Amino acid sequence: MITVMIVKNIIKIVLVLVVILILVLAGFFVICAVKGSKNVMQFTDENGQILEDSIAERVTIPVNGRDNTMIIRGRDSKKPVILFISGGPGVPQYWLNEAYQYKYPNHIEDEYVVCWWDYRGEGLSYSSDIDPAEITMDQLVSDACVVCDYLKERFCTDRVYLMAHSNGTNLALRLAMKHPEYFNAYFSMGQNANTAYGRHEAGYYFMKDIFEKNNDEKNLKKLESLVETVDGHICLKDKYNDDDWEGMLLSAGCATTRDMRSDATGIFLPHMLSGCYTLSEKINYWRGKLMMTKTPYSEECKQVVEEIKLDIPLIFLSGYYDYTTPVSDAKDMYDRVEATDKAFYLFNNSAHSPLWEENEQVLEVMRAYVR
């Protein structure tokens, strides 16, 4: 009898917890829906009036048989135009400007008219009828050219600027090499070099030093458990340890930003609570990211570019604490680049996102290349 009563009480507790969980999730999605909209944040004066020469809108255009949507914002529509290619793959980044406007204010839109392009299959350009097989590096390079043509015509300019972050630098580098005629300069933030051992080996030694200085035995032990030595190099024991490796980067302050310790609270929740997408668009954002893992483009991003020649200036922007795309890898690539002009800038208080973490310092660098 006592055993039966205990079982019944456990069942009741479990049911209550399930109901609470359902209510919490329902409440969360209601909040996400209420906060979401298709409205793009406008530039206004002290009286709340929209600035006369500003631009802040969503634009959808046909691009090689697929609709591509982009958010275009600039305090002054007569400023130079810059195409921003996001990382991931499949992780558009405009929303960071709204979600982190007080913590990491980003004023790039004061300096440029920024086209935050959601390329084929990601973010606002996601569609459930897209075949992942159609998303290749060559296809996205071709798509980017169509977007550039649109920007040139709309803003009456011969060339635009190019900026990319993280995984997006794989696409941007190839785009800049194949089609320099579109661009004044390429700003590469967190350039992905894809060296054989660089990312994990460099990250291992850097994080080990941090954990040792902090007497963090727990993370030291976990770090050691993830790696092994092969041919004299440090590498992951198992490719499926990538998620655990990302956890290490977060713990050491070497991931998206120096102070981010969780992708859930630092990326997922702020994104879902942002106001620039509807609830369905927020869901599609993550569906697009998942789909990108199944595309040829995702695999092509892992290929090393052996010979790099650019007919435009190339500017590398790297964070000292960035071990998502380690500085050492970026410097190795920089050393073998042939370009009209090239420069490497290191931001000592940044991890993977100098544009947000040290915004004014990055913009100061970028101003030097504006024609």
Write the layout of secondary structure elements.
Blueprint: H1 2-35, E1 55-63, E2 66-74, E3 81-85, H2 95-99, H3 108-111, E4 113-118, H4 137-154, E5 160-165, H5 168-178, E6 183-189, H6 198-213, H7 217-226, E7 227-230, E8 233-236, H8 242-252, H9 263-272, H10 279-292, H11 296-300, E9 308-310, E10 314-319, H12 327-335, E11 337-339, E12 342-347, H13 354-357, H14 359-367
Parallel strand pairs: 3-4, 3-5, 5-6, 6-10, 9-11, 10-12
Antiparallel strand pairs: 1-2, 2-4, 7-8
Helix pairs in contact: 4-5, 6-7, 7-8
Q: How would you describe what is shown here?
A:
The protein is α/β, with parallel strands linked by helices and 371 residues long. The chain has a domain at 55-195 and 265-367: Alpha/Beta hydrolase fold, catalytic domain (Rossmann fold, 3-Layer(aba) Sandwich). It contains 14 helices and 12 strands. It has helices at 2-35, 95-99, 108-111, 137-154, 168-178, 198-213, 217-226, 242-252, 263-272, 279-292, 296-300, 327-335, 354-357, 359-367; strands at residues 55-63, 66-74, 81-85, 113-118, 160-165, 183-189, 227-230, 233-236, 308-310, 314-319, 337-339, 342-347. The chain has an 8-stranded mixed sheet with strand order 1-2-4-3-5-6-10-12, with helices on both faces. A two-stranded antiparallel ribbon has the order 7-8. A hairpin with a 2-residue loop joins β7 (227-230) and β8. α4 packs across α5 and α6 (198-213) runs antiparallel to α7 (217-226). It is globular. 39% of the residues are buried. The mean pLDDT is 89.
